[in-house]
Amino acid sequence: MKLYEDEVTLVDGVAVTTVERTWLDMAEMLTVDELVVIGDSCVRRPRVEFEGRDTPLCTLEDLQWMIDRHRGKRGLRKAKDAIQLIRVGSDSPQESLLRLAIARAGLPEPELNDISRSERYEALGWTEVRISKRHMVNDAKPAVAKIRTALIQAGWRPTRS
Hints:
With 161 residues, this protein is mostly helical. 42% of the residues lie in helices and 9% in strands. The chain has two domains: 88 residues; 70 residues, no CATH class.
């Protein structure tokens, strides 16, 4: 696969591939879920007070451009599937994986981090049903069951059982 000049950058004087090119290269080896976790991390809005930067490593458009540019590359199908699931606002691999499990259970997608709000805001959840990440533990199944019950009680109807 061709490596274009604009797909290389310098980090501390060392030439490395750009974030979006590295993400696409990983599509040959990783699962779709793993690509989503990495993609979520790439496009998330950092908090300047913690990370010293306020812009994402790349955008969804950057990732899509890399897919479009490298037709025929191994892993491209997984990259195309993953980019449909990547979201801005997930702050951890666990949030990304839980969000995917929730969606696969037929539940509505949760709200993700909203760093534009000044008040404290839960990282992942549904404000309408008062469920947030703190209700969710390491195993997604109990969390999904609790969320499903709360959403049904609030009048939502899951798309799958």
